[in-house]
Amino acid sequence: MKAIVAVDKNWAIGCKGQLLDHIPEDLKYFKTMTFEKVVVMGRETFESLPGRKPLKDRINIVLTTRKDFSETDVVVCHSSDELFEKLNSYPKEDIFIIGGEAVYTQLLPFCTEAYITKINKEYEADKYFPNLDRNESWEQVSSSEAHYHNDIEFFFTKYINKEVRG
To answer: 38-53 burial, b if ≥16 CB within 10 A, otherwise e?
Structure first.
């Protein structure tokens, strides 16, 4: 299982149900990494998707405690036990955790890798990703050269979880 996310300098990931910024190259990277894979998200993340539609060409799994939540074209799981049972049907390397904050926090300990787009800017935010630079279990193993969108500098990085092996 892997995590994929874009964070600012403070490891913020969102504000008021929205991404911090729309960086076309990062969105393309996300699409490429998750294409024809399994994406796991919370209900609020699902509801924030364009048109509240599942991500195309991916298996969309929504983890929610809301028993009344149902949606066509997505797999709904109401507990981590149910989620892990469902995930056993897929190759571990094809599973991506895509948010939000509570789902990342809950599932990050089970991830072997994290693909973090680091945006060299601070945003107003109310949702955060755990700071992997301060977590001894995680090690950054790669970083791209600087990329730019307008005045925003960002990097594609990869971390590995030293305590979890795929």
So the answer is: bbbbbbbbbebeeeee
